[in-house]
Structure formats: structure tokens, C-alpha cells
Amino acid sequence: MLPILGLHHVAIICADYAVSKHFYTEILGLEVLAETHRAERNSYKLDLAVHGQYLIELFSFPSPPPRPSYPEAAGLRHLAFAVADLPAAMQWLEKHAVPCEPMRVDELTGRRFTFFADPDGLPLEFYEV
């Protein structure tokens, strides 16, 4: 058996670094572990964590092509964040002008969830645990 230990990180490419950095750090509250400017690539790499656990690499590149989302494209569908209080998380998003879909209930687990998007339209989810 392949000895996979767990998920290490998810890489996200953004179109506007300042807007996405603000979204992930100020609105979602992810912690900055490291920020690297790569001048030769005209690019940034931002390492982000949740409660100290490395989670996301946020990259910027000049003029990245848009991500096909609708209709749903093959590949990674969305990134889900665990939250303890879904209504409070939804109110937080609304307070920061981030629209989210109506609350739904997972038919298999009975848990509540909602979808919203990052500044580039990447589908994100809050899942109540």
C-alpha cells in the first residue's frame, strides 16, 4: 500500500494577488506563514495556514487564463473549510460582501453547508462539523 500520510496543501492561482491575499487572510482569516516575491516570474507565493496547519499555496501569475466553472469542469470541484457555526460563518461572509448560496443539508451526513466563491470564482464551501 502507498504510505500517504495526509493532505499537504492545495495550490491556488489568482488573477489579482492583492485582492486574493485580502480575501484569504482578512475575510477567511487564514494565517500567513511565508510570502515570497519571485521577481523573475513576476509572481508571488503566499503560504497560508489554518490554526498553524499549512493548507494553501496562493500563487499569482501575470494574466492566468480563467478557470472553467460553469458548467462544472472536470478536475477539482471545490475546496471545503470546516466551521463550527454555519449561520455565523455565512453572516461573516455577508458582512464582507461575499455572497453565498442558501444553506443546504448534506443528505448523507445531515450536516449543513453552503457554497461561495473566491475573487476568481473558485468554488469554496463552508461545511459545519
What does this structure look like?
- The chain has 129 residues and is α/β, with parallel strands linked by helices.
- Helices cover 16% and strands 37% of the residues.
- A four-stranded mixed sheet has the order 1-4-3-2, covered by helices on one side.
- The longest helix is centred in the N-terminal third of the chain and has 11 residues.
Itemize the secondary structure elements and their pairings.
Blueprint: E1 10-14, H1 17-27, E2 31-38, E3 43-50, E4 53-60, E5 79-83, H2 86-95, E6 104-105, E7 112-117, E8 123-128
Parallel strand pairs: 1-4, 5-8
Antiparallel strand pairs: 2-3, 3-4, 6-7, 7-8
Radius of gyration: 16 Å
What helical percentage do the residues reach? 10-25%
Mean pLDDT figure: 93
What ranges have pLDDT less than 50 throughout 5 or more consecutive residues?
A: none
Distance between the termini: 30 Å
Main sheet attributes: strand count, strand direction, barrel closure: 4 strands, mixed
Number of helices: 2
Q: Indicate the overall shape.
A: globular
The percent range for strand residues is: 35-45%
Number of strands: 8
Structural class: alpha/beta
Report the order of strands and helices: EHEEEEHEEE
Strand order of the largest sheet: 1-4-3-2
